């Protein structure tokens, strides 16, 4: 039971990350490679606030979300006017900057040694120190995220995001302020990535930069692509498939060194198979590609 | 009514002049055709007037408002709508969604109103009814719930016109409205343009089909090498053999 709860927590955290990335990549059409960076910002801000400032989990999580949103706005201001391809490269560069900060700002992040002894979440004097409790917390926050993103994407606001996803110039011609929508979508996405980071930090009680690298951004993007972009179930399906894959490989009995490499091969192969044979992913609504040139 | 005019517009691409000192004052309503050979600067002019290109120099006015440096979405909000030479619609969205997206000032399109706005659903029903009326008006009401990508090219053109109408814009630019469509659809489009003219709108369209221009235009502007070389009533301008021979074919 404990083991299932642990798997459930990991799946819930990755589902939160995939759903939030899908808001920008699937619904709005902006492929980002900086998501793990915002995830890391959330983890570090929340961990450091609870350790050094004595903040509670919820308050620290809110500050973490606001921090990530603020950073996403900086990134937006610098990059959202460039082309899609350039935007991907810019987010990649931003991710590298954040990874550099996590590694090098040792006075704050403790560099590659990481931050230890992060307290388990305490909500209204209840300290959640069991895997079952953490699973419930992660599940409730995941449900909240799902409801909010669903509410947004089925509204006229979401319809505009889908228009932007398809054709930014058409959106402009129809009087939509494309920049506003992209900044807002990116900000919400970063906030939920940070919330996932906060849960992760308080669950594992130890974080280091290796959990928030560009490879993790690619993993989250893979979950969205394989599960299906712009759907409500797609990112969750993607998260379940890819987050449980290491456990499946462990059951097969492969040595961990082989399993880790095999996992990368399977991720890559799955991506290729999905893109070639099922461009909308397992349960997706939108396929790749849109027009943005006049 | 809103008028549109441009003054001494200049635009070049890598040293090649696309527009040279182009000044045009359009009427407040009616149908204006812009004709000329390929590369004459017609689409460049349209793109500048709608904010999709910035002029190197010169100014564009909508009413008395100088919109030369406005981004396209702000120009659209002054009451200017357009279609594109290569048809642009949201192909993975439904026909109805495309028209709904064109309706101005939709409740629920901003973040806070989407999350907390009251009456969004009721307003959405009203908007859907309004959009359906428009789709029936242009003749694609039965396809409202189909994806745009599933429609024929001619039907997609009709949807793009419905989208322009949904914006409630006074000034509508149509870039080659009948290019590539079946003659029967062209007749439908012609009829729609006449209706829009009767509603007091200003339609400015680029077209190569001179017969179509004769049928619908109240005023013709002929361009070549980035300049306006003739303008006036179609019967007068299009009767000049040198223009027909040299620029229309």
Features:
heterodimer; A: 294 residues; mainly alpha; two-stranded antiparallel ribbon; 12 helices; 2 strands; B: 249 residues; alpha/beta; six-stranded mixed β-sheet; four-stranded antiparallel β-sheet; 10 strands; 39% helix
How would the blueprint of this fold be written?
The complex is a heterodimer of chains A (294) and B (249).
Chain A: H1 2-27, H2 35-52, H3 57-79, H4 84-104, H5 106-109, E1 122-123, E2 126-127, H6 131-153, H7 156-166, H8 168-173, H9 178-204, H10 214-227, H11 234-252, H12 256-277
Antiparallel strand pairs in A: 1-2
Chain B: E1 4-13, E2 16-25, E3 30-35, H1 42-49, E4 57-62, E5 65-66, H2 72-77, E6 80-82, H3 95-102, H4 111-116, H5 120-138, H6 153-166, E7 171-175, H7 183-198, E8 202-206, H8 210-216, E9 219-224, E10 227-232, H9 234-237, H10 241-248
Parallel strand pairs in B: 3-8, 3-9, 6-7, 7-8
Antiparallel strand pairs in B: 1-2, 1-4, 4-5, 9-10
Helix pairs in contact in B: 3-5, 3-6, 5-6, 6-7
What does this structure look like?
The complex is a heterodimer of chains A (294) and B (249). With 294 residues, chain A is mainly α. Chain A has one domain (2-213). Helices cover 73% and strands 1% of the residues of chain A. Chain A has helices spanning 2-27, 35-52, 57-79, 84-104, 106-109, 131-153, 156-166, 168-173, 178-204, 214-227, 234-252, 256-277, and strands spanning 122-123, 126-127. In chain A, a hairpin with a 2-residue loop joins strand 1 and strand 2. In chain A, helix 3 runs antiparallel to helix 9, helix 7 (156-166) packs across helix 9 and helix 10 (214-227) packs across helix 11. The radius of gyration of chain A is 19 Å and the shape is globular. In chain A, 50% of the residues are buried. In chain B, 39% of the residues lie in helices and 24% in strands. Chain B has helices at residues 42-49, 72-77, 95-102, 111-116, 120-138, 153-166, 183-198, 210-216, 234-237, 241-248; strands at residues 4-13, 16-25, 30-35, 57-62, 65-66, 80-82, 171-175, 202-206, 219-224, 227-232. In chain B, helix 3 (95-102) packs across helix 5 and helix 3 packs parallel to helix 6 (153-166). Chain B is globular, with a radius of gyration of 19 Å. The model of chain B has no long low-confidence stretch (mean pLDDT 92). The A-B interface holds A 148, 151-152, 155-160, 162-163, 166-167, 169-178, 184, 285-287, 291, 294 and B 47, 50-53, 71-73, 76-77, 81-82, 84, 88-93, 97, 100-102, 104, 106-111, 113-115, 120, 124, 163, 167.
């Amino acid at each position: 039971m404990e083991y299932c709860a642990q798997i459930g927590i990991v799946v819930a955290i990755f589902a939160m990350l995939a759903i939030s990335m899908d808001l920008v990549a699937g619904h709005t059409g902006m492929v980002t490679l900086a998501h793990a960076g915002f995830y890391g910002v959330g983890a570090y801000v929340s961990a450091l606030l609870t350790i050094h400032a004595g903040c509670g989990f919820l308050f620290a999580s809110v500050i973490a979300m606001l921090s990530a949103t603020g950073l996403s706005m900086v990134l937006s201001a610098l990059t959202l006017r460039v082309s899609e391809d350039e935007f991907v490269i810019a987010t990649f560069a931003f991710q590298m900057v954040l990874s550099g900060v996590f590694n090098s700002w040792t006075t704050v992040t403790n560099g590659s040694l990481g931050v230890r002894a992060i307290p388990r979440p305490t909500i209204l004097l209840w300290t959640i120190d069991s895997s079952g409790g953490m699973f419930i917390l992660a599940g409730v926050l995941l449900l909240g995220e799902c409801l909010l993103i669903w509410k947004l994407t089925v509204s006229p606001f979401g319809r505009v995001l889908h228009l932007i996803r398809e054709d930014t110039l058409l959106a402009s011609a129809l009087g939509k302020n494309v920049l506003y929508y992209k900044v807002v979508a990116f900000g919400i996405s970063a906030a939920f990535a940070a919330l996932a980071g906060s849960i992760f930090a308080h669950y594992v009680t130890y974080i280091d930069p290796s959990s928030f690298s560009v490879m993790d951004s690619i993993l989250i993007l893979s979950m969205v692509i394989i599960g299906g972009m712009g759907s409500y179930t797609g990112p969750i399906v993607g998260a379940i498939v890819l987050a449980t894959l290491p456990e499946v490989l462990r059951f097969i009995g492969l040595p961990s060194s082989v399993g880790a490499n095999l996992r990368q091969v399977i991720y890559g192969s799955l991506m290729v198979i999905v893109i070639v044979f099922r461009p909308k992913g397992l349960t997706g609504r939108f396929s790749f590609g849109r027009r943005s040139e006049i | 009514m809103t008028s549109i005019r441009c003054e001494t517009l200049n635009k070049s691409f890598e040293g090649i002049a696309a527009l040279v000192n182009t000044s045009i004052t359009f009427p407040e309503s009616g149908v204006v055709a812009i004709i000329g050979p390929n590369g004459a600067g017609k689409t460049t002019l349209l793109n500048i007037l709608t904010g999709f290109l910035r002029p190197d120099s010169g100014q564009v006015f909508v009413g008395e408002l100088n919109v030369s440096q406005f981004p396209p979405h702000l120009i659209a909000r002054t009451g200017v709508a357009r279609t594109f030479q290569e048809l642009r619609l949201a192909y993975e969205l439904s026909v109805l969604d495309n028209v709904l997206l064109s309706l101005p000032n939709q409740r629920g399109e901003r973040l806070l109103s989407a999350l907390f706005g009251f009456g969004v659903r009721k307003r959405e029903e009203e908007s859907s009814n309004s959009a359906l009326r428009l789709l029936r008006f242009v003749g694609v009401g039965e396809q409202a719930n189909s994806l745009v990508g599933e429609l024929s090219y001619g039907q997609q053109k009709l949807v793009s016109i419905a989208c322009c109408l949904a914006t409630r814009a006074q000034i509508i630019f149509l870039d080659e409205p009948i290019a590539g469509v079946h003659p029967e659809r062209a007749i439908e489009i012609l009829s729609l343009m006449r209706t829009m003219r009767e509603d007091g709108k200003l339609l400015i369209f680029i077209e190569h089909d001179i017969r179509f221009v004769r049928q619908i235009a109240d005023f013709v502007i002929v361009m070549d090498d980035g300049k306006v070389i003739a303008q006036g009533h179609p019967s007068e301008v299009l009767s000049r053999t040198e223009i027909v021979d040299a620029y229309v074919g």
